[in-house]
Design a protein that fits this description.
Layout (H helix, E strand, L loop, with lengths): L2 H6 L2 E5 H13 L5 E9 L2 E9 L2 E4 L4 E3 L1 H13 L3 E9 L7 H9 L3 E6 L4 E8 L2 E4 L1 E5 L4
Parallel strand pairs: 1-3, 1-10, 6-7
Antiparallel strand pairs: 2-3, 2-6, 4-5, 7-8, 8-9
Length: 145
């Protein structure tokens, strides 16, 4: 996603069943959990159409490293579907705010970052822009109609 498109995004839209899956996986995991969110930018919305639960090459309670082969396969699959990376979802055992490490990765991956506190399942969504960190809305919908 280009930085100019990211500046237009004011919310991320995700199906309720997909959000429930992400929250369930976060809650049951003792380690950080993550997922890639692929979709399209439509106006001021990042609309999620495909989630890919991460496979890891390293994982702990405070960080993870995604398996590079998994990443290549996921991006290839999304590209064939005409989708792009619109978000990254991951869990923290703390309030759903970007950590210092997250901020570094947000510079490299300019998409919407959804962060869940896996102790109480509160979720925050953020983008990092030249002006700093900006919170965006989360719209959970029943279906695309």
């Amino acid at each position: 996603m280009g930085e100019e498109l990211l500046e237009m995004v004011s919310r991320i839209v995700i199906l309720k069943e997909k959000m429930n899956l992400l929250l369930e996986e976060s809650k049951k995991s003792e380690k950080e959990f993550g997922a890639l969110l692929f979709g399209r930018i439509e106006g001021n919305k990042a609309i999620v159409h495909l989630i890919k639960l991460l496979r890891y090459s390293e994982r702990s309670t405070t960080h993870f490293i995604a398996d590079p082969i998994f990443l290549m396969e996921s991006f290839s699959e999304a590209e064939k579907m005409g989708l792009e990376l619109v978000g990254i979802f991951h869990s923290h055992p703390a309030p759903p705010k970007p950590s210092a490490s997250d901020l570094r990765y947000m510079e490299l991956n300019p998409v919407v970052w959804l962060i869940v506190d896996n102790t109480n399942l509160t979720v925050g969504a953020y983008v990092l822009e030249k002006g700093g960190l900006r919170q965006v809305g989360i719209e959970v919908i029943k279906n695309f109609s």
